[in-house]
User: Fold these one by one.
Assistant:
Number 1:
Amino acid sequence: QKMADQAKLDGDQAFKNGEFQQAVNFYTSALEQNAINGTNPKHTLLSNRSASFCSLKMYEKALEDAVACIACNPSFAKGYSRKAAALCGKGDVDGAIQAYKKVLSLDSTNDAAQKELTRLESEKGKRTSSAGGWSSEDTGRQSSAKSSDLSSRKWWLLNIILLVAQIFSIIHAVMVIFITSHYESKNAFGRAILAALFSFTGQAILSYGFPSFSTGKKLWKAFRGKASPAEIKDIANFAMDNNTHNIFYCSLTLSAAPSLLLLIPLFFENAISVSKRAVQLTSSLPAWALALKTAVSACADKVLGREPDIRRMISNAEVLIFFALILELFTSRRNILLLILYGQLLRVRYIVNADSKLAWNTVASRTDSVFLHANCPSLIKIAYNKVKSLAAGLVSQGSNQS
């Protein structure tokens, strides 16, 4: 069976079993490979991953996938259901109500959407008349009595700020290429990294919320080996998140000597994120902004349509950076601590990211053809096999721990 289709089936099974993070991983793999060997519509995979993110209470990511799903197939009613669920989780009740109305306009027989719409409208009416907060059963969705309009405006403002930061990072990354002055080039490099760090941190906050005392308490309990399985799962989900990896990567590159190569992963990560965020922000604009929505969607589709290829390019660049850091050990730019920490990041990436695994397997295949060649001296073969076994052991150990 085709790889993408099998990944989708595995994701469906994981979702049924309540293993939502596994489901996300499988659906992500299916999306990455679907253009190559899959038969499932892209909007179906995005819809399923949105539901998985929603089950993990990662409402920002759920909304991103729901919006992308709708962009792929505007007549797919379930896409609007996913959007409504994500908006409801974020506390944007008015937005969720509008999304459920759109579901019913496309599928008037959808009883689940009608039930949710009735519930939300009823609770909104009670809340307006009593000027009180949500009922106790909804405290998980809205922790305060602030209006949903204010919540929606804050969400817009945060996303616009992050969009500007990402564009700022992209522009300064490009400036590094054309600036001839070493001093100005170094400054542009630093600004690109800092803007990217800010945007990835903001995206993590949108997905998981602001860190609180309970967050520190969870980490302390995990450090002491006394955390519950649910707490460990929450920490693991955050640790395995792509935004977390990017935050760590940006932190590392701040201590590195400026290099265009180090900016390649950030440039393409920002390009993908800008495209998704722009579509997300313009999707709810009124009818008079149709021309803007169409233009943004057309530009974003050019990037998002090649997202699997770009993801593979990012993984290949990450591998290339690792070998570049090794070569720098023999120069005045050496940074041993950076190499060690970056190696640990790549170890995690290999475990959780299919493209990273493919990139490293490609490297292994090519080095095998050189160092295990029939004409290669036996001493080199033995040394190579030992290094390869050591690397495999480290990755295997990390997989068991995760």
Number 2:
Amino acid sequence: GAALLRRAPPLRAAAALAPPLPAAADTEDMAGGDSSPPEPRLVVFSGGTAFNCVAQELKRFTTRVTHVLPVSDDGGSTAEVVRVLGGPAVGDIRSRCLRLADTSTREARAVRALLGHRLNSLDEAEAKREWLDIVEGGHALWEGISAPYCDTIRGFLVHFQSQLLRRASEGFDFRNGSVGNFFFAGARTFFRSLDAAIFLYSRVSGVDSHTLVLPCINTMDQITLGAQCADGAIICGQNEISHPADPEQGNVVDKTGRTPVLHSPIKRVMYLSNRTKGHIDYTAHEVFPQVHPQVVENVEGADGIVYGMGSLWTSVCPSLALVGVGESVAARDCPKILMLNGYPDRETAGMTASGFVRAVTDTLNRVGTDDALDHPPSTYVTALIAPAEGLVELDDDEVTALGVPIIRLSNTLKEGEEGDIRLFEPPALISTLAEIVGERRDGGDE
């Protein structure tokens, strides 16, 4: 261990790579330079899995996108990093940055492959052996990456390893570990800043400079998500709400929605003081962390707001529940599009399309808290895009009564063992989004 640390590349130069994230006004300046109209500014509230399939396609429409993601994921390899080193969960952020990474050159693809690599998911000894091979610089994944990139990336991986060695008594399970998560953790603990770690990761992986990936909460602390069910029970932990892990599968979690449905429907999500994961906990009390100020700033300047498809309660709503988000979304006069899931999952079983609209509305209104808002659904959702023949019931009359028009997309992809699951076809979805936002901008919104 000591020899490994002595051979580690220095990190002092890398510190200069981490200025504060650019603000909305800065991204507008960067987008200028010619007489053509600037690309529209979008804010996307989503998680780190489902919306990834259209994130690359969205870049064809506009690169001026602020992706807002939760920092409460406590499953998979993220949970192991949080258990040993503490801090917020960055798995969703890492996943989005990876999907947005540059792939235009051989070296860019090699960097993406390295940061996207996962270790053996079942054999703990083999996973640790592979990790040491990577951090020592001998793994084949380093091929095609130039010395400056190698020194920068490996320096933070070594720093992550040094943090683990300082806490050796805790042990660390490397199974299914994400190299990108380890790099993130190394950067965050080195800079003592989540924003700086995101900036560094974005630059190393070649994310477009006009694109921002923001945590909904800028914190160095662990964040615990809770869900209050209709029967009053509170479920602690995002993973326990959405897709509990199988202990026999290491750090692998099932995100297919095949896990058993919840004992009672979710009424709302909240942040909890209790950090002990468990199915039901009556002792945890609600806390109210501050929203990242740049989330509000970018919403206030947005040409369009998107609620992405994915885990509704644990991916989209955690960002919407924060004080200040509902106010800023309500005040912004622009298209606000909800993308409906193609099929129900564990946390939305039995919900109809109108139920999704109400869930977004109630979360932004902070229903159930002392400072709740009272805006109607049409203030927060101006259009609902749904895949034709999707498995979530489209109760047209109910959605229309809420003041929200439905746009059905017939261009869908078939998935599932029987081909009965319909998902959005990325080009068709982004084309529809572009039409909605483009029509509003052409109509002289500003």
Number 3:
Amino acid sequence: RKGAALLSMCGGRPGSAFTPGAAYEKSPEAEAGCCARVFFTWPNPIFVRGNAKVEGAKGEKVNYHLDEKDMFPLLPTDQADHLVSEFEKQYAENAKKMDANAVYTTLKNMYWGDFLILGVIKFFNSSLQFAPSILLNIFLENLELQTDGIAGNDPPEWQAYVLGLGLFLALSLRTLTENAYFHNGTRLAFRVRSALTTSIYRKSLRLSPAARQGTKEGSIVQLMNVDAERFNQVVPQLHVIWDGIYQILGYMTLLTVYIGASSFAGLGTMLLLIPVNVIIHGRLTKLRGSITTLTDARVHATNEALQGVRAIKLYGWERAFESNVAGIRSKELEKVSAAAHMNAWATTFMQSAPIIVGVVTLITYAAVSPVFRLSTVFTALTILTQLRFPLMFYPMILMLTSAASVSLGRMERFMAAPEVGADARSRSPSLHGEPSAAKDDAELASAQPAAAAD
């Protein structure tokens, strides 16, 4: 019993023998133990299937080819029906309270617990990022003591093994927490995107005639594809907003401890580069907003032409409509080209900024420090290498967050649009098979002459 319990905790329940063509009834993740979740051993059955040999048409052994039925089914909490029903239920409650940000409030109420756990994992992961630099500095200082030739300065031999073990554990824990963070963050983003996409589609079916007339079909497609996808991109990275500052302050503190006031030269360089970064990403955000507007206009014009293609052919308006769509597309391509060039500048800037900061910091340290120690230089280089990641990705996350904020505003306005009345929906024959309003009117009209005759 103890062995079975240990096996269940570490790897989940043992799977049944592999049968070609047999589909999974449920995901192994549902019964996976804590170790299987931490080390991601629960997906192993898929790899076993992919590596299996089956009997071919001529009796020979051939590789088994995975297909859709070999995929694990989604957990109940990840299925779109569950996600959208919960979202619409809570959204309706918030909308009744006249909440102007009902979509945001609904997402916050549904996922704040998962988001908080994600933040705790991110904090531990970022805290572990500092350990390798500290352990490396201690290891190099001990190495310097062994090679300085002074008797009695040699550190105990066991310290090297302890430092090596500590470095191994720090890197292993950092990897495990990083994998856990991105796995749970991606799952959370998937849930948010599924709930939003399905809710927007259902809302488009309930729009009132007035709201439908004022809503372009291209904008609905844009909401479902582009705006919902932005949440899929930004949700796993939202914690970087505070974590980026935490990492930058932590690495700058370590630099100050190891190289002293020279670290402030790097800090000053970073502060000087921030306005340039803000200008570049500000222009990039404006260009992307213009692209979105032009894309909506192009999709609307294309749909309009397709819906009225008979009239266009009858009156010979092909060239006029073609010219209209081509003109919008030409303006859109100009903005896309400008955005691509600006994005290239932004990427170049993000790649070069950490290098510039490192060069300025080490030049300043070489100028003011009388001793250029191996342990200090290599530790500083390691810290600067780690520092480049928050410096590179922090502006990108701010840009994604800004774009997601714009998308959220568009969703709020769309979800708040008036709907067809509940009475009209309940009388629709396509929904419930009940008599339509037109049929009721016909029956009333036929009854009026009989009443007059009486």
Number 4:
Amino acid sequence: MTPPGIPPPPPAPPDEAVASQPRRRSRWGLAPGEQAAEAPAQRPDSGWDAGPAPQRRTPGTAPDGPERTAAASRGVGGAPIDASDDRSASPDRPRPRRDERRFYHDPRAQGPAGITAASRSGFADGTPDGTRTRWQTRHDEKKAARRARGDLTLAERARGEAVFGRNPVLAMLAANRREEISGVWIQEGSDASRDRALLKAVEARGITPEYASKHDLNMLVGGDGRRPHNGVVADASPLTPTPIDSLPLPAEWATDRADDDRSDDDDDDDRSTTTVTPTVTPPVWLALDEIVDPQNLGAVLRSAHFLGVAGVVVCAKNSAPLSPVVSKASSGALERMDVRSVGVMSRFLRRCVEEGWDVFGADNAPDAEDVTTVSVAKPSVVVVGNEGAGLRTNVRRACNRAVRIEGGGGGGPA
């Protein structure tokens, strides 16, 4: 029932009128309700619906045949495209080779300095073989001109290694263990330039100090500014450890051990009671098993020097070299301590035990002794392992005793 005020809808057309109207096709190529098998091969030649019935295809696929050719011939806005300019228009035309492409990187055109032929085009006045660019060539020319005038930088004048820092330089001058000290540079206007002790130690070695800017000293010790030289740098020969195979007992302890051996062979009790124990403090050496960090090595040397360690033994391989960084981290203790090197640490420790040394391995093991309960009664060697792995297995087996340090809370070994 139609509400009042609204005209009734028009009557539905008869079936004949619906059948005479052109049937609109869906995007699948079929009219609503039409089956593919019932589609006529040829539609009536009238209006927009003329032409052969399109074939049904899967949604999302590209058209085939004439439809593809017509779509490819139309550009943006329906404008035709010249097929002669389109390389993909002809399926028989081969694709361009890789070496024909415009920005292709050819490794064969790359010089020893890592500069391609394309990048060398802007540096035509460099070396012919392409090893040096224009700017590098100019730098080489300026450097050669400076050397011809005798105007060299501190880094070019240095003959050895640059020992930096006030304490390392003072300790080096006092210990006199390096073969040669070529020169000493002091920063202009710094505290080191007014340090009387430093200036006196330099003059005592017959060296005339030279003054340079902070920038020149920074470039001499590394150039990144992260190595504090404290206003003084010395040019000295490298410091190398003394290679050894064993560590003999000191003379007084070797005599006492011989007396003990004779008293064990003698049945007379009076002779055994006449053995005299040395009154000197037994020496303690420190053996470092593959300490690779120079900062750690310097810190250990500084602590060992403060605690009165007689000497330090390092591994000849897999150990940080005795560099200026180690000397700076040790605050000059490297210049004063007796540092030696061994080829095989486990063999060296076994020989120490045979000679009569007590060899303590720092190990966090349950059977290790608390370091506070251990007394040093004869010459001893304390072995400290690597920063990450600790003592190696063979090194641990070569020790005749093991010690550990309790943690700060007292809850267990650290």
